[in-house]
Specification:
heterotrimer, B: 123 residues, mainly alpha, C: 138 residues, 5 helices
């Protein structure tokens, strides 16, 4: 009973998501809506303003360095919680 | 309808999400449920990072000289998902620590046995 | 005869090479794929291997729990101070490190110290979580 209802819910969920996938644009074309002017601005200005040859490192450590700070804080708070959980 | 058959990455990511969800719901062992949650996280990362690929262009690293704006792929989805991967690792570590504490208290990792023991003990 | 002699002799050769590779991936973060997170993972794995081969007391004499926690906290505070300085220094025209030549290691302003800070945080976090899980207490 439980296994049948669990499989049914999974199949319904996958079919709803696949209906959503069938409306996506084609994979890897150049004029997709996701390759807009923002990515062209990042590619063009990164090596001039930051001096990094790796564009992804230049984005995560110069333009969006606050996101990396929050991520290091998540790691630190995870360690604090684990130490707190195991103290007698 | 034939978009589903040509977009390999998005279809594979959705099917992997379904596999992880079924693993989360069908097993009784707590460690297998945590594995299912990790598989769901990986499927979401695959779906998002695959949005950045453009056919015929190469990786966004400037080797000798800048070749122009039109010869690199989109670097933004890779940069955004780097934070998500670290958060998924921290969540898995926290869930495993809670499982160890449950095992020390109830001497089993089976969810039905734990619920039954909590129900009759009214802990 | 001691049963672990092959592991100990091979470990004496391999563990310094793994740590050297981890430091290389961290420092060349702005020139090639890699950066703070993946290099920190490699450094953390080298500490885990040292714990498994040589036992717990050997690692506790070199990297005690207190030193690792001081390492995490001071790296995080260092990252915050440098990011705060770089955030506020555009309007007030304060000095900042030079950009340098594209392709050399000492270039790109503040990116190299930030990579090193993130790498130290990730490596220490990996080893602390492992050492708590393998023995059931802090």
């Amino acid at each position: 009973m439980r296994k049948i209802s669990a499989s049914l819910i999974t199949i319904i969920l996958i079919s709803i998501l696949l209906i959503g996938v069938s409306d996506l644009p084609e994979f890897g074309k150049e004029n997709n809506p996701s390759n807009n002017i923002l990515s062209k601005t990042y590619i063009e200005n990164t090596s001039k303003e930051t001096g990094a040859a790796n564009i992804v490192t230049g984005i995560i450590l110069d333009y969006r360095a606050l996101d990396t700070l929050m991520e290091a804080t998540v790691l630190f708070s995870g360690v604090t919680v684990i130490i707190l959980l195991f103290k007698v | 309808m034939d978009i589903i058959l040509t977009n390999y990455f998005e279809t594979g990511a959705v099917i992997l999400f379904g596999v992880g969800f079924a693993t989360l719901m069908l097993h009784r062992n707590l460690i297998k449920k945590i594995i299912g949650m990790n598989i769901m996280d990986t499927a979401i990362f695959l779906f998002f990072i695959a949005k950045g690929y453009i056919k015929g262009k190469d990786a966004p690293i400037i080797i000798n000289s800048f070749n122009g704006v039109d010869t690199y792929i989109n670097p933004i989805p890779s940069a955004l998902m780097l934070t998500g991967i670290v958060v998924a690792v921290t969540t898995t570590a926290f869930a495993l620590a809670l499982t160890i504490k449950l095992y020390n208290h109830y001497q089993t990792v089976d969810l039905e046995v734990i619920l039954r023991m909590r129900g009759e003990n009214n802990d | 005869m001691n049963k672990d002699i092959i592991l100990k002799e091979v470990g004496k050769i391999i563990i310094p090479l793994v740590q050297l590779f981890g430091i290389y991936v961290i420092i060349n973060g702005h020139l090639s794929p890699g950066g703070g997170f993946s290099g920190g993972t490699v450094l953390g794995t080298s500490l885990i291997i040292m714990h498994l081969i040589y036992g717990e007391d050997f690692v506790k004499n070199i990297y005690s729990r207190k030193k690792l926690l001081i390492g995490i906290s001071s790296s995080l505070i260092f990252y915050t101070i440098i990011k705060g300085y770089s955030f506020l220094s555009y309007e007030l025209e304060l000095p900042h490190p030079p950009l340098g030549k594209l392709g050399s290691i000492l270039s790109a302003g503040f990116i190299l110290p930030l990579n090193i800070a993130v790498g130290i945080v990730v490596a220490c976090v990996f080893y602390i979580i492992f050492s708590i899980f393998i023995k059931d207490e802090v």
